[in-house]
Amino acid sequence: MSPLWLLRMVRWARRPPSRRRVLLVLAVVGASLALVAVERVAGWPEALTVDGFGRAGRP
Description:
This protein is an all-alpha fold and 59 residues long. It has helices at 3-14, 19-42. The N and C termini lie far apart (47 Å).
């Protein structure tokens, strides 16, 4: 572990993030997990799938 990470941990331990920031991070993680769950259940839409054509030409 680099000394920079140790300094970050010391700073975080001395002055932890506010309750509002913690809730914001948890909300973002929750929204991300919800999107992953919806994608797994409903599947990936065909309109958003890449065709695969590139410089090599058609497959």
